[in-house]
Design brief:
The complex is a heterodimer of chains A (602) and B (196). Helices cover 8% and strands 34% of the residues of chain A. In chain A, helix 1 packs across helix 2. The longest helix of chain A has 19 residues. Chain A has 602 residues and is mostly beta strands. Chain A has two domains: 40 residues, no CATH class; 558 residues, 8 Propeller (Methanol Dehydrogenase, Chain A), CATH 2.140.10. Chain B is mainly alpha-helical and 196 residues long. Chain B has two domains: 35 residues, no CATH class; 108 residues, Cytochrome Bc1 Complex, Chain D, domain 2. Chain B contains six helices and no strands. Classes of the chains: A mainly beta (602), B mainly alpha (196). Chain A: One of its GO terms (cellular component) is membrane.
């Protein structure tokens, strides 16, 4: 797999820079061979597309003029009828895709008609792991690097498989289902390391991120999300921008005694990598339990974002989106690294559409919040104070034990959950697939029993303001800090999205429609009804025949769709952590499925 | 039944009397007779005894090669006393059963208020499910939950499924009411796969 290494190491980073630095492009001067660059343009080697997490493809064969002619090229049955949140990735002549539990990894041969299976890898995932997966038994995708495919299993293994042969290279057990620990995130591969984190924020699992050696699977370092500074890898390099994040051992002192040991802050979302500053950026999940009365204090370092040295893991800065989170507002969403002209000055920023309802633009060197603007209905907070960095909560929406607080917006899955946004440098817009949900919330006494849920809340969700629509797809002008257009969807938009140089954006809805929109205007160019609701991540690639393809998994599930995937009873509005309250009509709109669809022009 | 019996008496007495005064006397007499009977409560077992051995086994399958005989599952005293079912409801929260099954609708675990029972709906089956666990995610609570409380939990789970008499099943919560109360669960039909 020499060529893969060649692409990853030599051309990928400069390509990323080319993408990042819109105006003068310094990194381009390092010069990358055109052929290699093009090969990489045609690949989709990681769910986020690139280290900056733009989910933007330079391919433009499919464009706003011809997208209406898209048709099915081939399909592939995943054989598992649970939520398909995974991203199909493409390296050279192969497409790699991983199923929900039991996490079977398939390689499809794109050189042959109908893309038959090239190999199959079955990790023999422990069946009992299904009992500690909070929100359906999903997996968010594999990642490629140095000729290997890396992915996580629900029972807490990270596995490397030879991309050519499907032979297991290493398999390490990092999580323990007996404390409720699972792994659902897509790893990040960068600089010969594989970065992985755990899930389990609803089980009182203490969150961590680990860097593994890509050749052996050996743990190079492990950074906890709670506890003493030495566990969190906080040292002399740590310079948080705001005073609220400064101090010694805040991961212990911002909790009641010992509560940090079951405090969550799991790293189940997205990691970005900035080669220039050799930094990784990732968010931490909700504090446990949900009932905030059980954990007075800011609950560091949960519901925030870390910048760390990519080699040593040493923390550089931290910012807390939701200090003392009240609503299960995990901070794990994707951060898009951009070099923007911000108010007349070039700034190196990261952009996040956050669960608490705000689009944040932050200086990614210092951790300063440059702006935070609501992109959905928010009444749980009033603003982000840019002087202190602190989210200003609304006292009348604060949960209490034994009291039902009604109509809190956004609901527990937030204005936007895990499903990633895309950024198009052509339009300058961020494309945000998101929710329009509110909830009733009652705090109840939590009881920690290892391996069982640690939540302490009765929740019932409902549609947010409007005509009962629960999902939205928004184009957001980052520089102007405002919405350009929004498309309402009946159900939460739980799929990811992608943008292309062909001025097209793609996403799917939970009824099963896969859609292509004009990236500028939002005009619907084409749609195709797949067999089941879509909660997956679309990707696009150039096939061995030189033509552009678009891939998406169909198969409803995830937290929003588990009502269908696990056949829940819709009479209980508190079911599935309260999501069923807002999804009582989903079983009438779609059925279970698990199918890869790939489209192309005729 | 206890309600109908005095009514029949009342009608019989009324027919045999002529005056209103006599009628009043008859009602007073009846009230005196009925009052002590109304104080009769369901019996609560305070010894903590539990069935030593499930009466009819805990078969998972309705297929019985050879004779086709399905032994009828026995009812347990635990599902016939409101106290035990109410205790089961408290324990259902306490042992975090509600963290996966919520108020019966399910989430991580399956719904309990519907009429699908992967591992059987008899109280023996539910007791076995709680103690032994099941392969697709149900944990084994053996050693964590005392035996008597397992039966109380199982009795409560039966009430969520509508198998328990309406005067035994719990009624509406003091908590967020987002699901029908257990005593409003529809009585399962014997033909819909729910079992007894």
């Amino acid at each position: 797999m020499i060529w893969t290494r060649y692409i990853d190491r030599r051309s990928f980073v400069p390509l990323l820079f080319a993408l990042l630095f819109n105006s003068p492009v310094p990194a381009q001067q390092s010069g990358s061979p055109t052929s290699a660059a093009q090969t990489d343009v045609g690949n989709w080697v990681m769910p986020a597309k690139d280290y900056a997490s733009t989910r933007f493809s330079e391919l433009d064969e499919i464009n706003s003029g011809n997208a209406s002619k898209l048709q099915v090229a081939f399909t592939f049955s995943m054989g598992i009828n649970r939520g398909q949140e995974s991203a199909p990735i493409v390296v050279g002549n192969s497409l790699f895709v991983v199923t929900p539990y039991p996490n079977i990894l398939y390689a499809l041969d794109l050189t042959k008609p109908g893309a038959p299976v090239k190999w199959k890898y079955e990790p023999k995932t422990e069946a009992s792991a299904q009992g500690v997966a909070c929100c359906d038994t999903v997996n968010r995708g594999p990642v490629s690097g140095d000729g290997r495919i890396y992915f996580n299993t629900l029972d807490g293994h990270t596995i490397a498989v030879d991309a050519e042969t499907g032979q297991e290279i290493w398999n390490v057990k990092l999580g323990d289902i007996n404390i409720g620990e699972t792994m659902t995130m897509a790893p990040l591969f960068a600089k010969g390391k594989v970065y992985v984190g755990n899930s389990g924020g609803e089980f009182g699992v203490r969150g961590w991120l680990q860097a593994l050696d890509a050749t052996s699977g050996k743990t190079l370092w492990k950074a906890w999300s709670t506890g003493p500074d030495k566990d969190v890898l906080i040292g002399p390099e740590f310079r948080p921008f705001y005073s609220m994040d400064q101090g010694q051992d805040l991961g212990v002192t911002s909790w009641p005694p010992d509560a940090w040991q079951h405090g969550g802050g799991n790293v189940w979302g997205w990691i970005s990598y900035d080669p220039e500053f050799n930094a990784i950026y990732y968010g931490t999940g909700n504090p446990g339990p949900w009932n905030p009365d059980a954990r007075p204090g800011d609950n560091k370092w949960t519901a925030g974002i870390f910048a760390r040295d990519a080699d040593t893991g040493a923390a550089r800065w931290f910012y807390q989106w939701s200090p003392h989170d009240l609503y299960d507002h995990d901070g794990v969403n994707e951060q898009i690294l951009l070099d923007l002209n911000w108010q007349g000055k070039p700034r190196k920023v990261l952009v996040r559409a956050e669960r608490n309802g705000y689009v944040y633009v932050m200086d990614r060197i210092t951790g300063e919040v440059l702006s935070a603007t609501p992109f959905a209905a928010v009444n749980s907070s009033t603003a982000v104070d840019l002087k202190t960095g602190r989210l200003q909560m609304s006292p009348d929406k604060e949960p209490e034990t034994g009291k039902v607080v009604r109509d809190i917006c956004p609901a527990a899955p937030g204005a936007k959950d895990w499903n990633p946004t895309a950024y198009s440098p052509k339009t300058g817009y961020l494309y945000i697939p998101h929710n329009n949900l509110c909830m009733d919330f009652e705090g109840i006494e939590p009881n920690y029993i290892a391996g069982t849920p640690f939540v302490g809340a009765n929740v019932a969700m409902k549609a947010g303001p409007g005509d009962g629509h629960r999902g939205e797809y928004t184009a957001w002008d980052i520089s102007a800090g405002k919405e350009v257009w929004t498309i309402n969807e009946r159900f939460p938009v739980w799929s990811g999205t992608l943008a292309t140089a062909g001025n097209v954006v793609f996403y799917g809805n939970m009824e099963g429609w896969f859609k292509a929109l004009d990236a500028q205007t939002g005009e619907l160019l084409w749609q195709y009804k797949t067999g089941s609701g879509i909660i997956g991540q679309p990707t696009t690639y150039r096939g061995p025949d030189g033509h552009q393809y678009v891939a998406i998994l169909s198969g409803v599930g995830g937290w929003a769709g588990v009502v269908v995937a696990n056949e829940l009873d819709t009479r209980d509005r508190t079911a599935a952590l309260g999501f069923v309250g807002a999804m009582q009509d989903l079983p009438t709109a779609t059925t279970k499925g698990g199918m890869l669809y790939v489209f192309r022009l005729p | 039944m206890q309600f109908w019996l005095p009514t029949v008496f009342l009608v019989a007495i009324y027919r045999g009397q002529k005056s209103d005064a006599a009628m009043m006397r008859a009602i007073m007499l009846l009230a005196l007779l009925v009052a002590p009977a109304s104080c009769q409560r369901e019996e609560r077992d305070l010894t903590g005894s539990v069935p030593e051995k499930p009466a009819a086994g805990i078969e998972q399958s309705v297929l019985h090669p050879g004779d086709g005989n399905n032994p009828a599952p026995a009812r347990s005293k635990y599902e016939e006393t409101a106290f035990d079912v109410a205790e089961g409801k408290r324990l259902f929260q306490w042992f975090n059963c509600s963290g996966c099954h919520f108020n019966g609708g399910g989430g991580i675990g399956p719904a309990l208020m519907d009429d699908k029972w992967f591992y059987g709906s008899s109280i023996e089956n539910i007791v076995a499910t709680i103690k032994e666990g099941r392969p697709n995610g149900m944990p084994s609570f053996k050693g964590l939950v005392p035996e008597k409380e397992v039966w109380q939990l199982a009795a409560y789970v039966r009430s969520v499924g509508g198998f328990v008499a309406k005067d035994v099943a719990p009624s509406r919560n003091d908590d967020l009411n987002a699901a029908p109360a257990e005593n409003r669960a529809p009585t399962p039909s014997p033909f819909n796969g729910k079992g007894p």
